[in-house]
Design brief:
Blueprint: H1 9-16, E1 22-27, H2 34-47, E2 51-54, H3 62-76, E3 80-82, E4 96-102, H4 108-125, E5 128-136, H5 141-146, H6 157-170, E6 174-178, H7 189-198, E7 203-206, H8 212-221, E8 225-228, H9 230-234, H10 238-249
Parallel strand pairs: 1-2, 1-8, 2-3, 3-4, 4-5, 5-6, 6-7, 7-8
Helix pairs in contact: 2-3, 2-10, 6-7, 7-8, 8-10
The chain binds SN-glycerol-1-phosphate (1GP).
SN-glycerol-1-phosphate (1GP) binds at residues 26, 143, 178, 181-183, 206-209, 227-231.
């Protein structure tokens, strides 16, 4: 029998990055029904998004994660990536998982403990792990609080660069600088460009990006992928959604 080789989600992302910045939409499975999540994914796909991240800091279960992933795939056909809040939630219905370490957590569990707990299940379920270093930047919001992070200060470029280099030297596939969902100040463009200059691994930026101006600033500073969550959950104006996604992608 002929072996069917399917492209991994990681390869899908890596193949697209050279063509320009990607936009990833974050959907929290605890915030709406799977059917509503599917509808959001369909609209955001029309706007031009490249993939859907599924996750949240609280209230995510394997059940709502699975149901949401299936509804999103059915409605949009886009790749889904689990963005885990902890090891209690796992699903084989998501295409891939950000196998991530919160690099600047003060709690060992978030740096490596939960990963050790989850790894055998990830293997058993056959989920594609995409290694990622996750760095919390001020203000850090809920995820910074839950993860007991020591956030990188907005003007502390050297520390941000040191974290990015550490992720690269560890062999992680991506590094994600996160200001926190709903942040009033996104990751500053000066920090993004310094990090981008320092490492070769793709740089993901998220937290507090909800205007075309903020998305454009992150893209121009060198972000390889831009994540928006709150905007997608709250915005029922497709024209605005499209404007932010286009500004993120530069199209
Ligand atoms: C959170 O970076 C993401 O993990 C998205 O943040 O909800 O502010 O877009 P927003």
């Amino acid at each position: 029998m002929k072996k069917v080789i399917m492209m991994t989600v990681k390869q899908y992302l890596l193949d697209r990055i050279p063509q320009g910045t990607l936009h990833l939409a974050l959907i929290d499975p605890d915030k709406q029904t799977p059917q509503e999540a599917g509808e959001i994914a369909r609209r955001i796909k029309e706007a031009g998004t490249d993939a859907i991240m599924i996750g949240g800091s609280t209230g995510v279960t394997s059940e709502n994660l699975s149901a949401t992933a299936l509804a999103i795939k059915e409605a949009s056909g886009l790749p889904t990536i689990h963005f885990p809040g902890g090891p209690q939630e796992l699903s084989a219905d998501v295409d891939a998982l950000f196998f991530m370490s919160m690099m600047n957590s003060s709690k060992m569990e978030f740096v490596v403990g939960y990963q050790v707990y989850a790894a055998p299940y990830v293997k058993k379920l056959g989920i594609e792990p995409i290694s990622m270093g996750y760095v919390i930047v001020e203000p850090g919001m809920k995820v910074g609080e839950v993860g007991k992070a020591v956030p990188v200060k907005q003007d502390d470029i050297d520390t941000a660069v040191a974290y990015a280099l550490t992720c690269e030297m560890y062999g992680m596939s991506f590094v994600y600088f996160e200001a926190g969902s709903g942040a009033d100040r996104p990751v500053p463009p000066e920090m993004i460009s310094a990090v981008k200059k320092a490492v070769n691994i793709p740089v993901i930026i998220g937290g507090g990006i909800r205007t075309p101006e903020a998305a454009e600033a992150a893209r121009k500073a060198g972000a390889d992928m831009i994540v928006t969550g709150t905007l997608i959950e709250q915005c029922d104006d497709d024209t605005k959604l499209r404007a932010v996604v286009k500004a993120a992608k530069g199209i």
